[in-house]
Amino acid sequence: MAELKNRIRNSLNETRILVLVAQVIVGFEYQSVFQHRFDALPNSSRTLRAVSLGLLLVALALLLAPASFHRLVEGGHNSLRLERFTSIMSTVALIPFAFCLGADFYCASQIVVGNPAALIFGSVLTGMALFLWYGLELFSRRRRRSPEKSGGNPEQTPLKDRIEEVLMETRMVLPGAQALIGFQFSIMLMEKFDELTPALKSIHLSSLAVTALSIMLLMAPAAYHRIVERGENSEELHRVGSWMLLLAMAFLAFGIAGDFLVLLWRVTGSAAWSIGGALTIVVLFYGLWFGYTLYRARARRS
User: Fold this and answer.
1) Measured CA distances, 131 to 93, 139, 140, 151, 220 (Å)
2) Sequence spans of domains, the chain
3) pTM exceeds 0.70 for this model
4) Confidence of residue 14 (pLDDT cuts 50, 70, 90)
């Protein structure tokens, strides 16, 4: 049990590293469409900006999925099924991450060296990322028979470990929320924000509000632990922390989707594309974080 616990914590910490990197790029992607030189970019580069952000949001959805899986499917307990799910999500998330980095490098280098060379640079960077994250591992991996793993059902994890893990997963979700709210506050002071229609400004303000609520929920378990439990561990703290985390993820999805709608409108000028893109993000996040996990939880109980 101790070995499984350590493997799961290592997986969550590795996922958190990826989320910390993603938060910086998310903030840049959202802010870029409100910068002065954005309108001077070719249409292909502006469209690629939106595609790049979409890929990054797919990666973010995959990286945060283990938190809801752990809460809803396993009830906060550790299992081999959770370990496999976390490993698969973090591995798959690197694919859109690699293409996002390549697309961003293409757009940046296009300003300096022009289109043909920028395309080469972006492709090389994407290839390097895929090699370092997949090719090198496959090349270096030795052929060995993995020990058989059984017992997918969750084991009874001690209360202390369950509370530490829910706080760890809260820290995993928080960077995405803090990057988004930083962007949401900053663009309201940019000149390009005044060009938005009143409806888009209201959508942005609503996204800011739900993101702020998400951050409040993510911070609430720490206050509950200090004020209510006086620093002691309890089943009630674990239950409250789990539900605060899930609610925060639910609000965060709407905050991300709302500003993705604003970004798509800046890029395409089309209400249909903007609304369709935002709805796609909501369906992706809710389907992966709650739809799939609730389905797995129901299947496990039956």
Assistant:
1) 15, 10, 12, 34, 41
2) 2-140+157-301
3) yes
4) confident
